[in-house]
């Protein structure tokens, strides 16, 4: 159960970032529960507004969620040579990735496979700016409260142009989302030339995890491309989070996702969305530029 | 006095980032003192090795200092059209910026004006990898334990190709280093076409401070250029820190510091320096790319 209490400081402690943790002053605990999969807490903080905490780890906050949601959605969507028509979100129960994907006018269907219905429920109640993504009347949003890996394995081969994996860390329910069977299934479910973008931890704290992930992706996406990008976000460990972006073979050459090929995403008419606040085409290109220590570590597995 | 104790958690609390703070597990307190200017503490941490704390704010750590030191030194030095010959560091008592500047073979003199001798002393004892910058036999390092603002005001007009201001936050002894009289003095002390790079806080936490700073710089560096860049670093608030980079008028057009014009810095022969771990020319260009919310806020004061 989350240690957060009204008027106290909550510190995010985890074996994934030993000896360090972000501390947030909690004004009020809005929700505490235990789902079939994890501890779920929603707290009001002085610095970041409302915060969603799963198994003691900060998932998103009112103040900085836009950086993560915009980047994990628009980096892959804008890199595609043709406007995507069919997308899948695995995880992402808060709705933020749905909101960002729905800014892509070409999308005809967006499916979401979130394992934990409680995450969807608390988001609809406490994070209206993210849960807004569930209510887009233009795109067909199919919500599946189910195991993401099973959903992807059951999908017909070549179904999706785009898969976004908005998962928590590789401990607990999301562990399988960092393993080869899931990536094999995603590769199969993608159309030729399709792209996948997965939450892929911090270069500063998890370089060894990311190295293994990149090597596994290079095996799965043979003939395609494997790339890594990151965004800054104060409430994730180390203040940044990265994305593994893999493209299935399909065109004449592996897709280089560093180059944006689609126009800036726009808010669909009549939607009460915040404007784009992080993503732009220059940010897209810059997100793939790695500091020397990371470039040296990941380079051997990356396509570009 | 710093609250850090052996075996306890230290949380970095400040009015500059209310309601949030990085927590570090402290294995051992190595030094605690009060200088004429501030509280000085050195602690051994589980996650980041040895950490320097001034007035309760983390200044640098063994594990991630290279990101800050490399970027604050090489962004301005590599942007210059001609190799710099004479540089000044204001603050930077730990020696890390000296270490990085000494990788520029063209430099004939590097001056440093650090107000607090205790910072220099504890660095020489507890941070040998940074304090190594004090012992370069090839460049003439003049160490002045003195008030940086007075030192710059007393310098002859047109003395420096490059000034790096490695200051703490704009509360306490470093407050004057964010104000116009200091920037006027730096402008005067620079050669025509010379460049200054100052520690300029976090886009996520201090956008209003940075906006005011940029507007003031645009006033001081008329005919020259004002630009903003940032680097990622886990132990600074929000996980990043930025730099205000200003160029004095001198050439035919204001210098665009986004473009690196000098070769990659190299370690001088015989020096026991760590290799470059963050900076490369692609990172240089990418560091100036701002997320949309920051671009919109700072754009009116920036030259490019």
Notes on the structure:
- By secondary structure, the first copy, chain A, is an alpha/beta fold.
- Chain A has 9 helices and 12 strands.
- Chain A has helices spanning 65-79, 96-101, 117-126, 128-131, 148-154, 180-189, 207-220, 281-286, 292-298; strands at 9-11, 20-34, 39-45, 49-54, 57-61, 86-91, 109-114, 140-145, 160-166, 190-199, 225-232, 240-247.
- The A-B interface holds A 9, 11, 17-25, 45-48, 64, 67, 202-205, 230, 232-234, 236-240, 276-280, 282-283, 285-286, 289-293, 295 and B 9, 11, 17-25, 45-48, 64, 67, 202-205, 230, 232-234, 236-240, 276-280, 282-283, 285-286, 289-293, 295.
How do the helices and strands line up, and which of them pair or pack?
The structure is a homodimer of 304-residue chains.
Chain A: E1 9-11, E2 20-34, E3 39-45, E4 49-54, E5 57-61, H1 65-79, E6 86-91, H2 96-101, E7 109-114, H3 117-126, H4 128-131, E8 140-145, H5 148-154, E9 160-166, H6 180-189, E10 190-199, H7 207-220, E11 225-232, E12 240-247, H8 281-286, H9 292-298
Parallel strand pairs in A: 6-7, 6-9, 7-8, 9-10
Antiparallel strand pairs in A: 1-2, 2-3, 3-4, 4-5, 10-12, 11-12
Quick recap:
Chains A, B: Belongs to the spermidine/spermine synthase family. Chain A is of the alpha/beta class and 304 residues long.
């Amino acid at each position: 159960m989350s240690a957060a209490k009204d008027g106290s400081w909550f510190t995010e402690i985890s074996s994934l970032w030993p000896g360090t943790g972000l501390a947030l002053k909690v004004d009020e605990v809005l929700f505490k529960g235990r789902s079939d999969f994890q501890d779920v807490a929603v707290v009001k903080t002085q610095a970041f507004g409302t915060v969603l905490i799963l198994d003691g780890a900060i998932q998103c906050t009112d103040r900085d969620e836009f950086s993560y949601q915009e980047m994990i959605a628009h980096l892959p969507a804008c890199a595609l040579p043709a406007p995507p028509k069919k997308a899948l979100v695995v995880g992402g129960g808060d709705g933020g990735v749905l909101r960002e994907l729905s800014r892509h006018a070409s999308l005809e269907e967006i499916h979401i496979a979130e394992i934990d219905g409680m995450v969807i429920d608390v988001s609809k109640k406490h994070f209206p700016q993210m849960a807004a993504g569930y209510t887009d009347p233009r795109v067909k949003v199919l919500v599946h409260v189910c195991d993401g890996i099973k959903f992807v394995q059951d999908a017909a081969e070549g179904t999706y142009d785009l898969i976004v994996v908005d998962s928590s860390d590789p401990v607990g329910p999301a562990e399988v989302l960092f393993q080869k069977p899931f990536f094999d299934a995603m590769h199969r479910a993608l159309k030729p030339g399709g792209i996948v973008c997965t939450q892929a931890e911090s270069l500063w704290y998890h370089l060894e995890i990311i190295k293994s992930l990149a090597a596994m992706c290079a095996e799965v996406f043979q003939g395609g491309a494997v790339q890594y990008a990151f965004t800054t976000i104060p409430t994730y460990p180390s203040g940044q989070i990265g994305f593994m972006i893999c493209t299935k073979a399909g065109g004449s050459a592996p897709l280089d996702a560093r180059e944006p090929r689609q126009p800036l995403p726009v808010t669909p008419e009549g939607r009460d969305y915040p404007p784009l606040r992080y993503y732009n085409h220059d940010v897209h290109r810059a997100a793939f530029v790695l500091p020397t220590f990371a470039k040296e570590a990941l380079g051997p597995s990356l396509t570009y």
